[in-house]
Amino acid sequence: MNWAWWSTFIAPATWRLRWEDRLSPGLHEADIVVLGSPKPEEIPLTWIQPGTTVLNCSHDFLSGKVGCGSPRIHFGGLIEEDDVSLLAAALRIQNMVSSGRRWLREQQHRRWRLHCLKLQPLSPVPSDIEISRGQTPKAVDVLAKEIGLLADEIEIYGKSKAKVRLSVLERLKNQADGKYVLVAGITPTPLGEGKSTVTIGLVQALTAHLNVNSFACLRQPSQGPTFGVKGGAAGGGYAQVIPMEEFNLHLTGDIHAITAANNLLAAAIDTRILHENTQTDKALYNRLVPLVNGVREFSEIQLARLKKLGVNKTDPSTLTEEEVSKFARLDINPSTITWQRVLDTNDRFLRKITIGQGNTEKGYSRQAQFDITVASEIMAVLALTDSLADMKARLGRMVVASDKSGQPVTADDLGVTGALTVLMKDAIKPNLMQTLEGTPVFVHAGPFANIAHGNSSVLADKIALKLVGEEGFVVTEAGFGADIGMEKFFNIKCRASGLVPNVVVLVATVRALKMHGGGPSVSAHIKFRYVKTELNGCCNLQKQIQIAQLFGVPVVVALNVFKTDTRAEVDLVCELAKRAGAFDAVPCYHWSVGGKGSVDLARAVREAASKRSRFQFLYDVQVRSIVDKIRTIAQAVYGAKDIELSPEAQAKIDRYTQQGFGNLPICMAKTHLSLSHQPDKKGVPRDFILPISDVRASIGAGFIYPLVGTMSTMPGLPTRPCFYDIDLDTKTEQVKGLF
């Protein structure tokens, strides 16, 4: 509501000669106009916007009589009220002011009136899926209303999921952000150390037990680990996102949308090469700009390509032969294609394939590969974008290959950007779910941290930070160890979002520290076989604390306690963490009792967040070269002595630098099972040389992507995958065996 008229335009319109210069533009912006002139017809209608409410209080000022008998003035397109007295007008204005103030108060931050769900923990703790099914989630529209979302800001999927429209950011743009907390971890075992579980336990503690607005922001799990080794990512025990089977399987289809968009672009690349190899310039041009009802017209994206080529023409018939050839031929060099097809399943036999062997492909074949969907650049674009327009621009900038003269070829050049955006238009909206205790969760984007940047979406974080308000907390999680997910969160995600974290929560477990101290490997079938009490592996925890301190953010260590841990072990880990520089170190029991078991962690995080953050990036993207930035991460974060570039990696770096991409941050693809490139090197390896086997460029996402050692972007299945235990009860339609 525009209230500017209150002080400026309440004056009688008889003053308009004196106020004309000020009155005219002001009336044009007003929502309500009060007429107090005996000659309202003298006010030009052009001064008043259509749709404005007009209160006609015309009267004879000498007699004080209301001029109801005067000829009625017709304001075309305006909402004209019946003639009213000045008192009635004043009362109406007072009511509108009161309503406006009430509406503004409702839009401003307030502590949520959240109905939290009660837990009744059992001992021994049942399976994750049994716990999930034992809790009835709130209807998602009820949850949305509780946290301040309006009815037209959500799109409901079933009973327990909803997408949140980006319009909420515009409505809350003046709202102060809450505190921003990152959950990272030590170098994990193959089973993970419970970062998702800690994240959920922490927000359950903050909101359900300390009455503090809080939001968890998680990645959507890939089908690869869900059916492979690690299982789902909904948390565990009494700290879960529910319903866990909906969370772990298809959710709202975002990963499928990414798969479709990625593979459409891959198909466009090979198809374009085929058609350019088999057609003349003229035939190619005539098919790219076909006659429709006797007229040729460029599409919008084709006009953009012409502009990029320096051809300032809009009539297809006016291009010269040279311009036709430049426009029609991308001249892609097949050996430079970096865009791969994707599938959201672990399938080692797709790591190297040959495409184009059918007769219809006319002998054009090449070696290619599949990546897992969450390694797609489109997933990274989704996770780093901040608006629909920004996503479209990023998709268009994605570089898929180089042409034969060495220049980058983009999705825009292939003409596919608009179609990719259409496929992704719903995926850009964060997914709203809830924890076992009824607190809100955003699930959005799912890049792996070892082969991508490993963080949930910027948009989910930004919306959550507005919804929790200045005193609230947003807790997001970075994949794998702090050396991978956290480093990328700071150097890539924070650089893209402009957000500054307040606290790092570093998750550790006794079992992982024992493994790093020389204990046996952890496997899915022998989870608790440690008996020794020495914790020499705490060196890994100390190193990860030091990595977080490089960025100037206070660290709270969350020790995820297992039933086999002794009190002495728990106390020793917490003491060593504090000596290493942690702000605090707290044992957590959320897995067995829910948010109640993480109240001490929540209090420690609140206290740490009250301290001043001295956040800083590890390197300056504009000053350092690609090689320097890779070396800085290898030495300062991993502890390497130096790096070693393969000839292929060096050639790619030279090409990307020549193409103008040298000022981008670095996203290392490295094993998550060691600080080094060798998964079996535990603890804190030293004096190793980090081999860089290849380098890719994710220009749309905005980073350079080196591959360390033999890192694969398509995982494989183990001898006994999780799918052996997953089944469907065909009578009840309930999923069994997910964890």
UniProtKB/TrEMBL annotation:
Keyword Manganese: no
EC top class named in words: ligase
Pathway participation: One-carbon metabolism; tetrahydrofolate interconversion
EC code: 6.3.4.3
GO biological process: carboxylic acid biosynthetic process; tetrahydrofolate interconversion
Keywords noted in UniProt: ATP-binding, Ligase, Nucleotide-binding, One-carbon metabolism
Similarity field: In the N-terminal section; belongs to the tetrahydrofolate dehydrogenase/cyclohydrolase family. In the C-terminal section; belongs to the formate--tetrahydrofolate ligase family.
Assembly, per entry: Homodimer.
The protein's name in its UniProt record: formate--tetrahydrofolate ligase
Taxonomic source organism: Rhinopithecus roxellana (Golden snub-nosed monkey)
